[in-house]
């Protein structure tokens, strides 16, 4: 066992050799890939996983520390989930900040003046390469112009502003289950308990999981 007490833990990029690969399914936004991977002991295994473009999410807080949240139907889990604004990185190399600003506008018709990186995560690394960057957005105001026209599940969304502390209690009580909402509000609580939101990374901080031009 390695003693890590002298240095903070950090994940490390590593790639075991892929000896064969195929894509048995290609969807509209994502696909499924099967890789044959050579293990360090020389053995070989097959791993199936979702290939995902990546996503962004926004914990948007107003002057009363209320978060902008959206209730949306999610068919795979057969639930209406309360979520924070989020969306796919539809364009390869897309600037994640610009994508987050777009999603906040489209889903909540809100803009923000202060943006910081709250956390970067892999949502389900055992079965998908999806990477998500969650932003903290503050100094909110109503967006200008017409509201974005919504379709499908988005047409049935409900919008609310809820104290972020209430959301954290809902996560811990098992009432709220959305990944980005849970990570966002708990990370924000950790930031408040630590050096404060001002110490968070800048909104344009590098993101090796989904590189983008400076």
UniProtKB/TrEMBL annotation:
Query: PROSITE patterns, alphabetically?
Result: NUDIX
What biological process terms from GO does the record include? Answer: nucleoside phosphate metabolic process; ribose phosphate metabolic process
The segment(s) forming the Nudix hydrolase domain are 50-184
* Recorded GO MF terms: hydrolase activity
Mind telling me which residue stretches traverse the membrane in this protein?
A: none
Any keyword Isomerase? no
**Known Gene3D superfamilies for this protein?**
Nucleoside Triphosphate Pyrophosphohydrolase
The protein in question is named: NUDIX hydrolase
Q: Which organism is it from?
A: Streptomyces sedi
């Amino acid at each position: 066992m390695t003693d890590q007490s002298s240095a903070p833990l950090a994940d490390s990029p590593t790639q075991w050799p892929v000896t064969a690969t195929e894509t048995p399914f290609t969807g509209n936004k994502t696909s499924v890939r099967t890789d044959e991977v050579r293990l360090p002991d020389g053995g070989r295994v097959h791993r199936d996983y979702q290939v995902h473009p990546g996503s962004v999410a926004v914990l948007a807080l107003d002057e009363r520390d209320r978060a902008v949240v959206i209730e949306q139907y999610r068919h795979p889990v057969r639930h209406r989930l309360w979520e924070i604004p989020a969306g796919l990185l539809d364009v390869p190399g897309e600037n994640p900040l610009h994508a987050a600003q777009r999603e906040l506008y489209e889903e909540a018709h809100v803009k923000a003046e202060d943006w910081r990186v709250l956390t970067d995560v892999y949502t389900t690394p055992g079965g998908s390469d999806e990477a998500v960057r969650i932003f903290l957005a503050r100094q909110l105001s109503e967006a200008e112009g017409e509201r974005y026209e919504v379709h499908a599940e988005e047409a049935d969304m409900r919008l609310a502003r809820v104290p972020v502390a209430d959301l954290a209690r809902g996560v811990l009580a098992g009432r709220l289950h959305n990944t980005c909402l849970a990570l966002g509000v708990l990370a924000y609580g950790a930031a408040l308990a630590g050096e404060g939101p001002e110490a968070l990374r800048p909104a344009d901080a590098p993101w090796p999981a989904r590189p983008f031009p400076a």
